[in-house]
Structure prediction request, 284 residues.
Amino acid sequence: MRFTTLVPTGELARHLDDPAWVVVDCRHDLANPAAGELAYRKSHIPGARFLHADRDLSGPTTGANGRHPLPDPDAFMAKLGAIGIDPGKQVVVYDAQGGGICSRLWWMLKHWLGHEAVAVLDGGWAKWLRDDYPETAEIPVPAPTVYRATPRPAVVDTDFVALHLRDPWYLVLDARSAERYRGEAETIDPAAGHIPGAVNRFFRDNLAADGTFKDPPTLRAELAALLRDVPPERVIHQCGSGVSACLNQLAMEVAGLAPGRLYVGSWSEWCADPARPRATGAAP
Prediction:
């Protein structure tokens, strides 16, 4: 059985020694980029490899292309091969940020490279510990392999977003917190506010109180209330830098909806040009 959206902790525990499964730790702190790797070296799921949100899941920044642009696909695939991932592996990704970081790797594999067998650990690191499954400080030494794929057109750029501002046939879904969306608090990017017409869906709103995903019917009802008459495939997902927005895409798939497309540059790219319009407040 392939897991393509979420995988329960118990299922992963049963496959810890399965050579066809690869686990990747993506813990990360935007305010302290070294924290995730330090935490990994202290303790992680047995056999888990580590990929860094800045070094491995992103490419070079220019000041105008957002904080987490996509990496060169060949360089990224070389990193996948180096940690033992090939197109035949079942990949499980996790973090300690409610899925807001590891979902970027889920999206890169599934929607950018077409790797179907990739899933987010439901509940992440916190639930793994809560369920009393094993942890270790041992760093695995995976056998390298080769990863080859052709990237898919799963993204939109700034020009596309600008062209469809307030277009009733498209919906921009902003995954940032309500405070950042409204422009009341901005501690990361140089300007506050949101893309005009964007609707707010904080990525953590997809999670239940215990940190696992809400059930599919609940997610479908909540998302349908936001989308209204917009087809799911015409949703444009964004956040601060194209990372946590991927969790909203995952939620749409869990709900049985098409995931839409990702605006990788997101708010950090949009607000880099002061000539682009900005909105503040609770209204789109």
Remarks:
- Strands lie at 6-7, 21-25, 49-50, 90-94, 118-121, 155-156, 171-174, 199-200, 235-238, 261-263.
